[in-house]
UniProtKB/TrEMBL annotation:
Described function: Required for formate dehydrogenase (FDH) activity. Acts as a sulfur carrier protein that transfers sulfur from IscS to the molybdenum cofactor prior to its insertion into FDH.
Gene3D superfamilies xrefs: 3.10.20.10, Cytidine Deaminase, domain 2
UniProt xrefs under Pfam families: FdhD-NarQ
GO biological process: Mo-molybdopterin cofactor biosynthetic process
Gene: fdhD
Single Gene Ontology MF annotation: sulfurtransferase activity
Record carries keyword Cytoplasm: yes
InterPro entries referenced in this protein's UniProt entry, alphabetically: Cytidine_deaminase-like (IPR016193), FdhD (IPR003786)
Protein name (Swiss-Prot/TrEMBL): Sulfur carrier protein FdhD
Keyword terms, alphabetized: Cytoplasm, Molybdenum cofactor biosynthesis
NCBIfam families, per the entry: fdhD_narQ (TIGR00129)
C-alpha cells in the first residue's frame, strides 16, 4: 500500500528572462490530485500536498459530515495512479466506513468537486452550503502576549514553507498556547482538515484549543472548526464578513494577527450572539 506521506516538494528548473535554457532550479511545493472514495463510491477530487493523507482523509470526512468519529472508519487504502491523457501522477484514496454511516452517506450523496481555492463547490443549495450548526461552549482566551508571538511561531514551525514557500499552514496550539503540530498543504481547507484528522487520530478534544493559519479566514473554515468543536481560529490575514458573522453566532473565537498592529478579535466565545445575522459592528 502507498504510504500516507509522499514527497512534498520537488526541484523544478527555470530560466531567467533572456536565458535560452532552463538551467537554474528551485524547490516547489508538490500539488497532486487525490480522488476520494467512500466504500468504493467516488465522492470528491481534491488537490492536495501529499503528506499526512491519513489525517487529511479522516479530517475531511469528519468536517464533511461523512463520519462522526474516527471509530466510524474501518480502513483507509491509498494507491498511486496516473492520469493517462496528461501523463501526470495522481492518488486514489478509499475510506471504508461503518454500515450505519455509509447508509447515511448514500442518502446525502451529491456531486462534489474540490479545489485549492474553494470549499463550498458542489453544494446544490444555500441551505446545504450554510447548514445549522450547534454553537460552541464558552472557552478560555489566549493572553495578548502569547497572541503577539504566534506569527513568528507559525513561520518557525513551517517545514515546507521554509523550503518552497507558496503553501498554507495550520498550527494546533494547546490551551496554554504551546505548539502541538504544524501541518501544511497547497489548500488552506486541506491544512485545517489535516489538523482535525490529527486531533481525532490522537484523541485530542479541541475545546479550549486554537489553530493558527497562514491564510485568510472564510466561511467554510468557520464551519469546519465548529463541527470539530475547535474553540479558536487565528489567522494572519483578514476574515470575510460572513466568516465574522458566523463566528459570532456560533461562539467561535476569531482573531486576526496584522503584521504591524495589535491582534484584532472579531468574535469571542464570551460575546457570542446566536441571534446575530449580519450586524458586524456589534460589540
Amino acid at each position: 500500500m502507498t504510504p500516507f506521506s509522499l514527497t512534498s516538494t520537488r526541484h523544478c528548473y527555470f530560466a531567467r528572462r533572456d536565458a535560452l535554457r532552463y538551467e537554474e532550479q528551485t524547490q516547489l511545493v508538490e500539488e497532486i490530485p487525490l480522488a476520494i472514495s467512500i466504500n468504493q463510491i467516488t465522492h470528491a477530487v481534491m488537490m492536495v500536498t501529499p503528506n499526512h493523507l491519513d489525517d487529511f482523509a479522516i479530517g475531511f470526512a469528519f468536517s464533511e459530515g461523512i463520519i462522526n468519529s474516527k471509530q466510524d472508519v474501518r480502513d483507509i487504502q491509498l494507491e498511486e495512479t496516473t492520469i493517462a491523457h496528461l501523463g501526470i501522477p495522481g492518488l486514489a484514496l478509499n475510506l471504508d466506513i461503518s454500515p450505519r454511516q455509509f447508509a447515511h452517506f448514500k442518502q446525502h450523496k451529491h456531486a462534489h468537486l474540490g479545489a485549492t481555492g474553494c470549499g463550498l463547490c458542489g453544494k446544490d443549495s444555500l441551505e446545504q452550503a450554510l447548514p445549522i450548526l450547534k454553537p460552541l461552549p464558552a472557552s478560555q482566551a489566549l493572553p495578548t502576549h502569547i497572541l503577539k508571538t504566534l506569527r513568528e511561531m507559525l513561520f518557525a514551525h513551517q517545514d515546507l514553507g521554509q523550503k518552497s514557500g507558496a503553501i498554507h499552514a495550520a498550527m494546533l496550539l494547546s490551551p496554554e498556547g504551546h505548539p502541538i503540530i504544524c501541518l501544511e498543504d497547497i489548500g488552506r481547507h486541506n491544512a485545517l482538515d489535516k489538523i482535525i484528522g490529527y486531533a481525532l487520530n490522537h484523541n485530542i478534544s479541541l475545546h479550549n484549543h486554537s489553530v493558527v493559519m497562514s491564510s485568510r479566514c472564510s466561511t467554510e473554515l468557520i464551519q469546519k472548526a465548529v463541527r470539530a468543536t475547535l474553540s479558536t481560529l487565528i489567522h494572519l490575514a483578514s476574515p470575510s464578513t460572513l466568516a465574522v458573522s458566523l463566528a459570532r453566532q456560533l461562539g467561535l473565537t476569531l482573531i486576526h494577527l496584522p503584521k504591524k498592529d495589535e491582534p484584532r478579535i472579531f468574535a469571542s466565545s464570551f460575546h457570542a450572539d446566536h441571534s446575530e445575522k449580519q450586524n458586524l459592528s456589534k460589540n
